[in-house]
Write a structure and sequence with these properties.
With 371 residues, this protein is α+β, with helices and mostly antiparallel strands. It has four domains: 9-97, Roll (Ubiquitin-like (UB roll)); 138-214, Alpha-Beta Plaits; 225-282, ADC-like domains (N-terminal domain of TfIIb); 303-370, no CATH class. Helices cover 25% and strands 19% of the residues. The chain has nine helices and 16 strands. The strands form six sheets. A five-stranded mixed beta sheet has the order 2-1-5-3-4, with helices on both faces. A hairpin with a 5-residue loop joins strand 3 (56-60) and strand 4. The longest helix is centred in the C-terminal third of the chain and has 19 residues, at 301-319.
Length: 371
Amino acid sequence: MSTVVKKIVNFKINGKEASAPEGTVIIEVAKQHGVEITNLCYNRKLKPFAACRTCMVDIRTPEGEKELVYSCTQPVAEGIEIFTSTEETDRYNGACLEMLLVEHPLDCPICDKSGVCPLQDNTEALQLANGRFEIQRRNEPSDKSNPLIEFYLNRCIMCGLCVRACDEIQGVQALDFHQRGMKTTIGTANQEPLDCEFCGQCITVCPTGALMDMSSQERGLAALFSKNHSTCGYCSWGCTIQVETKKNRVARFVGDETNGLGINEGNLCAKGRFGHGIIHNENRIKSPLMNVGGTFKEVGWDEAIKTIVERVQATINRSGPETVAGIGGEKLTNEESYLFQKLFRGVYGSNQITNLAHMRAPYVNQFMIRC
């Protein structure tokens, strides 16, 4: 397979020499060089959209011509000079942000995004504590019809990130824009209940807390939660998750979209995002259970393993290795699954083996019959 090597272009950003592959958009280059540009709708995994209009920069061409462009859609070019914060760009970006703040609620102390909210960061960066326009807050009820995802329209800034993530990443198109002008909203077709894969990717990309995780009862400032990276244990993929805890209890799992972190790039499935409840569930099985006279009782690991070995060996001696079957857990890693099948095929001499992840497959029924 051949690899196309992109041409490297040289340019200046805020007076400093820089370089990047041809075709890289200005906002991405700025991040790589430690320069922050205000924006609310950019995501490196999605196609450029320029919905928020708050990322305008000033560029000068090699011929000396001045252009005002949106940094999320404009790629770098050879010999250009980029100025990310001038009087003109700050005035334009600030005006666009002020218009968003006109109807945005001031409920930061109880918002899950408070402290990690781009809208807060941009407001502070552009010093817009006191807006020029008359405040007209929305007064829409919170939609809690879905047991996993809450939609709070009052916080929505119509950036379209949730719509685009659902379409471009998941390929589901469960969300879309509705109506026009000042009445534009985001929702499902005909305002029906959300019917999708419940991956929660819309929650991850939402910059303002308009979409929230209903599986967690914890609410409050981001600073109240401790954050640690871990690996999801629901399947063999090994996706990276961010575990948020509060008062030594797991509050929720979050996808971390930090570039280069993990194989999943912040994407999670329904189990990986909403399956944290099992950790503190009072019915969680914490030790092996053995069927004794029709009743399951807790036993130690040594006793459980010893019993399995004795019964498997007795069955093989009595009826042959093909009478022994193994069903691996769907939470096993690829390496653990390999060792499990090697135990049955290499040690026991049985090919009667499958995995719980295949339980919905048609051929599993035939496997169960053969066993």
